[in-house]
Amino acid sequence: MELATNSEESYELKFLCSEFTFDTTIISQLNLPPNVKEIIINLKYITFFDPFGIIFLDFFIKNLFKNYKVKVLLNNEVINYLLRMNLCDSLKKYNNLIIEPDIFNISIYKRNLREYLLELSEFEVNNDDEVNSVLERIIQITFPKIDFYNQIQDYFKEVIAELLSNIQCHSETNKAKMVIQSYSKLGNCIKIAIGDYGIGIKKSLEKIDYYLEDSEAILKAIEQGVSSLNYGGYGLPNIKDIILENNDKLCIRSGSGYYLLENKNERIGKCHYIPGTQILLSLTI
User: Fold this and answer.
1) Under 8 Å between Cβ of 244 and 151
2) Is residue 273 within 8 Å of 56, Cβ to Cβ?
3) Which domains does the chain have, with CATH numbers?
């Protein structure tokens, strides 16, 4: 990511690659002058979004909007997809948000693709019935396409159900967002992205006397036996085992830290600070 000053009152954040969710610059450490009133998110170089990218952009704008006016510059190639995935509907609540091109005044024809994707959706998990409703939607899209996971349906359901139930423990509003997309041209995979705007893994683990940086807290949360009645314990460690066994992909970002497991290689690091936790499962079909 590049940082450029457009004027005394605006700063431009220019993202140059599709892995922009793991950019190493942390917004809170940019030491922006107090007179800065507008942040420009330049995504003109980004020609592809996946579910994780959509969750990131939605949460990123929400976080910046607390203190700044926000302008987003998009590449024309992604307009239809972002509209198809309901990003526009999620952003309408920000009255002064500027997006170029103006997606708020663009309409597209949406085919019924419910067997292939779930558009950006907000859901609540105040009780078990709501958790089960969201879980069934995931299963409806996922299991017909993943042969291996058909053999461990009960196990996989339990892991995903725990991830959803975690939100009841750590999300201040009991609300989260989810996006699902299956792909046939990108290595035959399905991607499930879930994000909440809660206290995050670091503060969750502080309840049981683990005081760690965000990325270290994620590593601790995926250890067997670590639990604060939310992250860790059964859910994340066993999801990691499933991913390792099948050479799939797991991404976890929480606060200003991230964990990436891909091709059986692990990586941790720092990224843009966003409250809460966002998780991506990329599973081979």
Assistant:
1) no
2) no
3) 2-105 (3.30.750), 117-284 (3.30.565.10)
